[in-house]
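To: structure desk
From: M.T.
Subject: fold request, one chain
Message: Could you run this one when you get a chance? Sequence is below, nothing fancy, just the single chain.
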Amino acid sequence: MDTMRDRFLDVTTRLLDEDPRLAVVLADISAAAFAPAAERHPDRVINVGIREQLMIGAAGGLALTGLRPIAHTFASFLVERPFEQVKLDLGHQGVGAVLVSAAGSYDWPAGGRTHMAPGDVALLDTLPGWTVHVPGHPDEAETLLRHAVADGDEKVYVRLSAHRNTHAQPVAPGRILMLRQGSRGVVLAVGPMLDAVLAATEGLDVTVLYAATVRPFDAAGLRAALSDRAEVVLVEPYLAGTSAPYVHEALADRPHRVLGLGVPREEHRHYGTIDEHLTAYGLDAASLRERITAQLW
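Reply: Done. Structure tokens follow.
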């Protein structure tokens, strides 16, 4: 069973052979996996070493020449460490790139706080014009990655995780899917949180929505799913409440309540496993059911 990161490596390697405009910039992470592609395309597979700021700067330079660059490393080293370069070398220069991360909020607890980035999407929200995909399955990751590469010169973040759902959904970039319909309120699951949300809401009279793209936020899709009760519970795999401002904006013309569930601001200074971190964050199915029913009933 492949992971989202496995699928990214495989699909990107094939795209390098097919698309002469595509380039990949690495900061050591996954360099070995791209070694065969680098032998075939030494001018379009570039490893700058452990210099993440340079990685983003190089991606911006490649974009200025007309290439479509992908920059890839762990989320904390892709968004947080080189944030100034993301802001200036891409956004301020008016060029795009595809940033593809791995090991987001809790994928590698043994790596410690340096390898956790629950604030990555919230940080990108401070910049204009970013598309943000959060797939929950390798098939979705491939769909969204291919769309991102073909998406002209736009700025796109594809957030990959070892945490995944059992089944892929028929995702389309920028669209929310309705998976269940009910009358007590809406629970919006983002990316790999879907399985836990489906288990948590089994038998409950709620609408379950699924988003694998969170920016731009599908305000129309959310509004169309609401009943008379404008109650929304967000369940995101990163910082709690990250998308809450977008829900408030979508529902600005009607009374509503929003509960944002996700990774808390407080640090959990333990290693453990992904599942243990999810339980500690209150994002396992049992905890989610308790928190959702407390909000909607």
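Reply (cont.): The chain is about 35% helix and 20% strand. Let me know if you need anything else for the meeting.
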